[in-house]
Amino acid sequence: MSFAPKFFTTAESLVDSLDKRLLVLLRDGRKIIGVLRSYDQFANLVLQDSLERVYVGDAYGDLERGVFIIRGENVVLLGEIDEEAEDALPLRQLPFQDILEMQREESEKKARRDKLRFQLLHKQGFSVDFADNDF
């Protein structure tokens, strides 16, 4: 008697998500929201009426993307959106350009904080190999 191993892919579980609104977190950090229309055995996704959402603090901005094809290897996480829970969130929507500006400012602020922290660590004798010239 021989037992053949059974292989299950994550793509098989996507059948229940067809025609539902999903949030997809991509490997580069982007968040795409759209209606799942199709997928394949590699978990490549086709989203319709999609948008890219950027969060900064208690605000977010959306950029419409239309039909969006995502290669499966770039998907970190995906999940169905609960419309009622989403509406209840205390977030405010801002124009996308305003959100990008806020994101840039937040990124610059973080970079300045990190630079100070790395300098402090270096003074204490720690090596910070991923910083420019280790200060």
TrEMBL record:
Family recorded in the similarity comment: Belongs to the snRNP Sm proteins family.
Gene: LSM1
Gene Ontology CC terms: Lsm1-7-Pat1 complex; P-body; ribonucleoprotein complex
Coiled-coil ranges from the UniProt annotation: none
InterPro entries for this protein: Lsm1 (IPR034104), LSM_dom_sf (IPR010920), PTHR15588 (IPR044642), Sm (IPR047575), Sm_dom_euk/arc (IPR001163)
Name recorded for this polypeptide: U6 snRNA-associated Sm-like protein LSm1
Top-level lineage group: Eukaryota
Alphabetized UniProt keyword annotations: Cytoplasm, mRNA processing, mRNA splicing, Phosphoprotein, Ribonucleoprotein, RNA-binding
Keyword match Transferase: no
GO molecular function, one term: mRNA binding
Pfam families: LSM
Domain Sm: 9-84
Protein location: Cytoplasm; Cytoplasm, P-body
Subunit-level organization: Component of the heptameric LSM1-LSM7 complex that forms a seven-membered ring structure with a donut shape.
GO process annotations (BP): deadenylation-dependent decapping of nuclear-transcribed mRNA; mRNA processing; RNA splicing
Function summary: Plays a role in the degradation of histone mRNAs, the only eukaryotic mRNAs that are not polyadenylated. Probably also part of an LSm subunits-containing complex involved in the general process of mRNA degradation. Component of the cytoplasmic LSM1-LSM7 complex which is involved in mRNA degradation.
